[in-house]
Amino acid sequence: MIPVAEFKQFTEQQPAFKVLKPWWDVLAEYLTVAMLMIGVFGCTLQVTQDKIICLPNHEPQENLSEAPCQQLLPRRSPEQMGALQEVKGLKNNLDLQQYSFINQLCYETALHWYAKYFPYLVVIHTLIFMVCTSFWFKFPGTSSKIEHFISILGKCFDSPWTTRALSEVSGENQKGPAAAGRASATIVATAGAAPGKAGEGEKEKVLAEPEKVVTEPPVVTLLDKKEGEQAKALFEKVKKFRVHVEEGDILYTMYIRQTVLKVCKFLAILVYNLVYVEKISFLVACRVETSEVTGYASFCCNHTKAHLFSKLAFCYISFVCIYGLTCIYTLYWLFHRPLKEYSFRSVREETGMGDIPDVKNDFAFMLHLIDQYDSLYSKRFAVFLSEVSESRLKQLNLNHEWTPEKLRQKLQRNAAGRLELALCMLPGLPDTIFELSEVESLRLEAICDITFPPGLSQLVHLQELSLLHSPTRLPFSLQVFLRDHLKVMRVKCEELREVPLWVFGLRGLEELHLEGLFPQELARAATLESLRELKQLKVLSLRSNAGKVPASVTDVAGHLQRLSLHNDGARLVALNSLKKLAALRELELVACGLERIPHAVFSLGALQELDLKDNHLRSIEEILSFQHCRKLVTLRLWHNQIAYVPEHVRKLRSLEQLYLSYNKLETLPSQLGLCSGLRLLDVSHNGLHSLPPEVGLLQNLQHLALSYNALEALPDELFFCRKLRTLLLGDNQLSQLSPHVGALRALSRLELKGNRLEALPEELGNCGGLKKAGLLVEDTLYQGLPAEVRDKMEEE
């Protein structure tokens, strides 16, 4: 006998593939096994037993063609039969070899081919059915997708996060350990049950299926770090797999093709079997020209297995009919509904996760097949398609990673003296942040899709919030909290229209710093949201590419004290609206492409500081108009292309700080000495060759920066500035330092590196405030000082 197990290789599949086999495929598989057994049984009989047995026919030759085999048997009357009772049979005078020869010859020539090859045909057709059924599991283009899907499906089904997500989102996670244990233990058993019946059947299910209480965790608790990372990796796999599978429909097409092929095969088998099944006959007439060998030309043969084969044939045809009906039903299932689309509507309604997306193409087709096996698989798989579920998992992992103790280690004082917590490039916002009630400043950078939870209200000392490339949603209930607490708000984004609207409703805000670009088509208009609600705003900083000062700035004209516009080189044209800022004290127009000092600035009577850094100023003749700004004390004209300072700079007698570094100055006017209020003068990084002696008139000067120029000597009058504390002379061409430097008793910082000095005057010892740390000079020059001078400088 040929064991059926030998044919296992034709249908061998991974056990996990059973989830993609609907009931009709399972039924068809059993039918093919039954048909295969019929074929194997018939083949075994063919091989092990005699096929046909023949006897010579004694009738005359002329009657052979007119009578069938059963009619050629000798007929005798009852009287003849009684008279011949002693006769045992007709003598044929044939030996065993002749009988064997006749049997084989008649089997090949007289027996119908269907009767001869019936069992082999059954085996062949059954193997074809098996191949058609499992072909899509073996074909390279489909098997890889199926294996990947089954692998992900199994991990999603068994993931602890699936149970937790379904329990939390759908409200099945009850409070208390006992209720949580029941929910987790029966989540598989009760999936899909009506909420009203869940409580009634819970006890009965636990009693009837105690093994589920053992396999499921007794309490839905926090996932450990490893489980959280595994669930996070599953979300990424599902995303990539969905994108890959939804691109085509090869699985759907392959399944249809193999089903159509099985239907065609079924029809062909059914037709020819019904036609030829009657050819299986017990008696077969055989006429062969063997009279010279055997003495007979006509034989009557018995097909020994005809009776059994006819029964097997009818049984086989019955199985084929049932198999064909399943194939026809499969075609009906494939075409009567859109299997290339799959809706999770019922899952969304049952679980409450309304963001689960519908899928299409091969992804949808496999989920339809899964539903035929067990719809619970698609429900648990849907958890990993939900962004809500993914965000909850990220939040859980964040809370594991960023404990309150770890966050407290990152607390630092910022430039404003506030206790600041800075977080950068996190996948979300840890809930543990809101346990640090002492935080005064929160800085969030490159954190995507932040939604502040109600726990934000626990930060009772929060005064400053920075959102740098961190899109944020704020529930309405928390806007009141931030409006009452926030004093400083910083927002940085790609485009200013991405700034959250709730920012412009923070009435208690004192400082607002915005950074982002206007779209090219809107840059000239530079439209910004209304600032009318910001009743207490004192500082406004805007870094963008605006073509003019935003009109909404005038909404806070009555109380705005500091305005900073940083344009990154884009030309700022319309500045007339600045005239309305009557209370403005500080104005920064940085990198605004200005070629002249804006006339609107001269109307700002309260202005105290003006910064025009990094523009294209060549001439500052308008500096005379600054005499109208009687409160102006700081003027920064650095990083421009100014070639000279006009003589009427002398009119700025109230000026205390003047920055002219990084320009193209070669000389300074002597009238600069008449700016008697000047305390700081920075003319470093220019091309100065000398200083006017009138610089000695600056009796209030405390800081003088002359580094990176071409000075060869210093006027002795410079050392009349007895209040000078900082003198920066590095990287010039000085060959000596005047002994009069000893008159600068308040000097505490002196930079001399990068000059041509050969020695330092010993009068440096008279500078009582100058220590070694404040003297920046080459070591050789320092060692050249007298020992007592060095000792004095090195004293604490």
Automatic annotation (TrEMBL):
Pfam families named in the record: LRR_1, LRR_8, Pannexin_like
A Gene Ontology cellular-component term:
lysosomal membrane
Give the way it sits in the membrane.
Answer: Multi-pass membrane protein
- Would you indicate the residue range of the signal peptide? none
Q: List the keywords (alphabetical).
A: Cell membrane, Disulfide bond, Endoplasmic reticulum, Glycoprotein, Ion channel, Ion transport, Leucine-rich repeat, Lysosome, Membrane, Repeat, Transmembrane, Transmembrane helix, Transport
User: Gene symbol?
Assistant: LRRC8E
Q: Provide the protein name.
A: Volume-regulated anion channel subunit LRRC8E
- Record keyword Chaperone present: no
- State whether keyword Isomerase applies: no
UniProt subcellular location:
Cell membrane; Endoplasmic reticulum membrane; Lysosome membrane
One Gene Ontology BP term is:
cyclic-GMP-AMP transmembrane import across plasma membrane
- Mind telling me which residue stretches traverse the membrane in this protein? 27-47, 117-137, 313-335
Question: From which domain of life does this come?
Answer: Eukaryota
Which family is this protein grouped under? Answer: Belongs to the LRRC8 family.
Q: Which reactions fall under this protein's catalytic activity?
A: chloride(in) = chloride(out); 2',3'-cGAMP(out) = 2',3'-cGAMP(in); iodide(out) = iodide(in); taurine(out) = taurine(in)
InterPro entries (alphabetical): Leu-rich_rpt, Leu-rich_rpt_typical-subtyp, LRR_dom_sf, LRR_domain-containing, LRRC8_Pannexin-like
| GO MF terms held by the record | volume-sensitive anion channel activity
Which segments constitute the LRRC8 pannexin-like TM region domain? 1-331
Native organism is: Papio anubis (Olive baboon)
